[in-house]
Amino acid sequence: MDWKGARRSGNIEDRRGMGGGAMAGGGIGAVVLAAIGYFVFGIDPQTTMQVAGQLQGQTQQEVAQGQVSDADGQFVDAIETSNTEVWGPIFAAQGARYTPPESVVLYDNATSTGCGTGQSAMGPFYCPADRKIYLDLTFWNELESKFGAKGEFARAYVISHEVGHHVQTLLGASQAARRMGAQGAESGTVRLELQADCYAGVWASKAGETSGGQIVIRPADIEDGLGAAAAVGDDTIQSRTQGRVVPDSFTHGTSEQRMRWFTRGYERGDPAVCDTFGASRL
User: Fold this and answer.
1) Are 11 and 106 in contact (CB under 8 A)?
2) pTM over 0.70
């Protein structure tokens, strides 16, 4: 994957090396993230609450958005900027205006968010309350060592999936998911995640048209993306961590579903094909 000549908007909020900020959203926010951490990532809720307690009372430091100098940060910036260049025309064609996430927050270990205290053990996530994407870059090591997902495009897939959640917030899909319920293999939560995978595929199909053609995605890169999608399927994770698959506790969909919806978005390049909420078969 080529990207180093790509445009970078500087929509990055770099909190790395700053320590945790004050917990945004208060105790309720901590409870929300504790629930997310448990049901999505299997983190002990007491761990999340403990981190939140440690961070309460600390002063939130002001962090300016802008360009970052390290390669990992520049990569995140380039992929988020490319997503903006993909989704802007898509929204404009529908008579709407795309507004990018408020920022992509790079942090270490734990940080304050509009949804409560986020921690690196939760993996990358999008907070609809403040419309920011949160990413501890040590996740890249875990993506490769723990999930076996290699290559820069696997990382680009993760970032674009989170941007997909922002697109859903703009379009109201998150509200539709809540109405459908949050548990089970056919739940609104699973449909929301699979749609974000499909949106990541839409970005991949059009990324070469952004940044003056400075982003180049090859077939081998798509294979890396599919490998990442397969590695984080609920059935694969459950088999590895608990030795059995429990569909009633699915939150993101199976490996096969995640690969299929990403491929659907990539092959068609049209978000209209990503209607997981109206699909009879996930």
Assistant:
1) no
2) yes
